[in-house]
Amino acid sequence: MNLTSDKPHEECGVFGIYAPVGTNVSKYIYHGLIALQHRGQEAAGMAVSDTEGPLGNLRIKKRLGLVSEVFHPEDIERLSGNIGVGHVRYSTTGGSTEENAQPIAMNHIKGSLAIVHNGNIVNVNELKEAQMYRGLAYYTTSDSEVLAYEIVGERVKTGSIEEAIKNSTQRLRGGYAVIAMSPRKMVGVRDPFGIKPLILGEIPNSDAGLWQSGTYILASESAAILAVGGEIIRDVEPGEIISITKDGIQSDRTLCRNKRAHCIFEYIYFARDDSVMDGIEVHEARVNAGRALARKSKVDADIVVGVPDSGLSAAEGYALESGIPFALAFHKNSYIGRSFIKPTDEERQNAVHMKLSVLKSVVEGKSIVIIDDSIVRGTTMRQLIEMLKEAGAKKVHVRISSPPFLYPCYYGTDVPTSKQLIASEHSAEDVRKTVGADSLEYLSIEDFKMMVGELPICTACFTNEYPV
């Protein structure tokens, strides 16, 4: 177990870029994927093409590993082209194997296609059975591959990739953001509820003349667009199909609906602190969650601390609202990464100690409020409290900037059963005793209004009310 194994995980991050002919976009995809690395650390990949080259001129590389482990300088030179897509993966459906890495590239009678996908298709088995019946696919191992076969199956019958995506996505149920690259264009689509994020950006003209007009980006988060020197245009609307060619951007909103259900965990945990999604600044949302926690229950404490990195913004908000000083109680070892030495069972149990250490001078003799974004299994919080008390903390009060996580998510989060959720099997008092806290309080569903305002959100993992 490592520090993030006791967290819900997003499935992946997607990035696509269309630039003028003669521009090599692979280094921008690389940096965009680095900015999205928090969304998936199991595998990375990219596919690029030249819009004026042959129809089947896709160049692709994908492997297990972090972005910096998968791609090397010679890869960036080899993967040349002015249009490309990239992906970082955390598996929720399909195993953590190289064949499930993305992009998924396919050749068909009208050319070639590369697809990257974030999310989860709920009716994947139904689609797979239909594909087998039609003779399209036999050995699909992930919902992303099933999705790719759906699009390719439509593409051979239709006049455009946009029409193929429109036809195929009408059969999908679930949360998804997809970027598809044909040899001449890039197309992005977001599920009709907006469960998964997708942002449109552009790179403006530079004084150096490196970029001409018509360089556009689609990405899971605004932080990835800014990381490559881009500017945000807007969020892709739920249900919208965005098409990017040499002639610019076209939008098809015929599949857009009135009902929306944006994933609240993007604001609680998944997204980078510096991202903006659907008009909400993620950092500000987390600060407001901390403020709501402080209003909900007052506690006599000396300092407020956050669990790095996900609990720091909420801890800041709690401190601002309560007047209790904010302090940094943990030193995070950012270079531990993924060791090539296989850990022993004992080392897995002590992984939190390898990742974090307590600043004894900060916590000794203090009553502490510790803020984290969620409790899934409870193992990490228990270890953190033990570490704080071993360092001399008198009391440790736990505050969680989300409600109790009670139900599984079917839209791209790796919590498939309620049995994995400590709050689903135990009362709040039982959870408090299990983790060793002196007190425990959660954010309430009603507090989400303070966090994200009137944004329509999916709260199924807390309420068992699923939008799809």
Description:
This protein has about 475 residues and is an alpha+beta fold. The strands form six sheets. Strands 3-2-4-1-10-9-11 form a seven-stranded antiparallel sheet. Strands 5-6-7-8-12-13 form a six-stranded antiparallel sheet, with helices on one face. A four-stranded parallel sheet has the order 17-20-21-22, with helices on both faces. Helix 5 packs across helix 6 (about 160-170).
TL;DR?
The chain is of the alpha+beta class and 468 residues long. It is 29% helix and 24% strand. The strands form six sheets. It has a seven-stranded antiparallel β-sheet with strand order 3-2-4-1-10-9-11. Strands 5-6-7-8-12-13 form a six-stranded antiparallel β-sheet, with helices on one face.
Q: How much helix is in the residues?
A: 25-40%
User: How much strand content do the residues show?
Assistant: 15-25%
Cα(first) to Cα(last) distance is 32 Å
Task: Please state the CA-atom Rg, rounded to the nearest Å.
Answer: 23 Å
Strand order of the largest sheet: 3-2-4-1-10-9-11
The best one-word shape is elongated
What is the number of helices? Answer: 18
Structural class, by secondary structure, is alpha+beta
Unreliable stretches: 207-211
The major beta sheet can be summarized as:
7 strands, antiparallel
Averaged pLDDT = 89
Q: Tell me the number of strands.
A: 23
